[in-house]
Amino acid sequence: MIDRRSLMLAGAAGLVLPGVARAADLKKVRAAIDTQLPDNIARIQDWIKNPGIAAENFKMEEACAYSMGLLKDAGFQTVKRMPTAGHPGIFATLDVGAKRTMGIYFMYDVKQVNPDEWSTPPFAARIVNKPGWGQAIVGRGAINQKGPQAAFLAALHAMRAAGQKLPVNLVLVAEGEEEIASPNFRDVVTDPQVLAALRKCEGVIIPTAWQARNGAVSINLGAKGAVEFELIASGERWGRGPQGDIHSSYKAMVDSPAWRLVAALKTLVSDDGNTVMIDGFRDNIRPLTAREKELVARNAAGASEADVKAGFGVKVGIDDLPFPQAMERLAAEPTLNIQGLVGGYTGQGGKTILPGRMTAKCEFRLVPNQTKAEVLEKLRAHLDKRGFADIEIKVTGGYGPTETAENSRGIRAQQAVYARSGAAATLYPRLAGSWPGEIFTAPPVSLPAGQFGFGHGSGAHAPNE
């Protein structure tokens, strides 16, 4: 693991010079990092203490304004609030007169929290001892995404204090809706002013901190797409069952929207729930190439199956596959997941009701060459064909998968910086998680995009992040 001081230094080393930084220059940056370390740690903590939760419309304007202030403090000359149909985005530029320009993606929203599940208050940003790692900041957003983003800003502060000029200009776009699948971010990116600035960029990166305990890191050449939606069964739309909740004794004579939803859900997947069975869903899937399979095998050989399973809290995986095949499935397989079932009574004890409405919160994870529009159209047709035209589909956000060539300038630059910093880096075909990189890699932007950074964190979307 890279300690906090080295984390800031490594971030700065990636920015100081296109080649190997001169020893005298790097020494100045190192001195600035030593001086600024308490402020850099405090910046992460304070950002966590100022949350915005898009899913709950919680303090989003305040979170946007706070994030804009951080960008101004880090030296961005232009920082502009970008209104959308939902929560605002941010557009910022830092022009140093360099020959090349780099795009940066930030997000300022975080996932919801249940404080009862946390060992420390989720927005207190306390520093605790993490066994095997040392001192760590715990709080919602610590790894996803405020910690890595604050480390990037810390590098900018250090270089300015050290009198070092950036080798690239920066164009930064941020959103406040990443955690609800970015429903309006495309509008921010395709704003004429933003699009013109992005077209000057070599590529786009999102700061990350995914190093393993030994410092090794994977460079993802893409990410799965994500589509978030709700499937809703109701007596009102169905024309059967109650308009609202009624006493459960009437189940003997009244249809149940809850069972209606269960029946519809069952048609969407195989009996074990592990394969999507929507008509035509797999028609456009691009299988892994021989090169991608080779990269998966290399990563599987260098990973610990026991550690991976322990991290997930599972004993066995799907079909008890050998670890290399399980890792290949992780990269290649699109999925349909139920995040939660909502409706009826969920409090203590029973309430003896027959619910008039039931909702399944769902998500697709997509692989090349699937698209958001395609899978939603096929979902609707599949349900209609089986007599479930009354099941409402409410789409809340989403985007397609993203891919970046391994010989692109951005990927080669990442490999060079990791090598210069002594971090063993492997290529991996596709992140199983998602981020709206497709908005950058697809027209009209059409840039290589990916994740990059130093340091370590865990617990994204989970308690004790």
List the topology elements.
Layout: H1 4-16, H2 23-48, H3 60-73, E1 78-82, E2 89-94, E3 100-107, E4 126-130, E5 134-138, H4 146-161, E6 168-175, H5 185-189, H6 192-198, E7 201-207, E8 217-220, E9 222-223, E10 225-234, H7 235-238, E11 246-247, H8 257-266, H9 290-301, H10 305-312, H11 323-332, E12 335-343, E13 353-354, E14 357-366, H12 372-385, E15 392-399, E16 402-403, H13 409-420, E17 425-428, H14 438-441, E18 449-452
Parallel strand pairs: 3-6, 3-7, 7-18, 8-17
Antiparallel strand pairs: 1-2, 2-6, 4-5, 9-16, 10-14, 10-15, 11-13, 12-14
Helix pairs in contact: 1-2, 1-4, 2-4, 9-11
Write structural notes for this entry.
- This protein has about 475 residues and is an alpha/beta fold.
- It has 14 helices and 18 strands.
- It has helices spanning about 5-15, 25-50, 60-75, 145-160, 185-190, 190-200, 235-240, 255-265, 290-300, 305-310, 325-330, 370-385, 410-420, 440; strands at about 80, 90-95, 100-105, 125-130, 135-140, 170-175, 200-205, 215-220, 220-225, 225-235, 245, 335-345, 355, 355-365, 390-400, 400-405, 425-430, 450.
- The strands form six sheets. A six-stranded mixed β-sheet has the order 1-2-6-3-7-18, with helices on both faces.
- A hairpin with a 3-residue loop joins strand 4 (about 125-130) and strand 5 (about 135-140).
- Helix 1 (about 5-15) packs across helix 4 (about 145-160), helix 2 crosses helix 4 (about 145-160) and helix 9 packs across helix 11.
- It is globular.
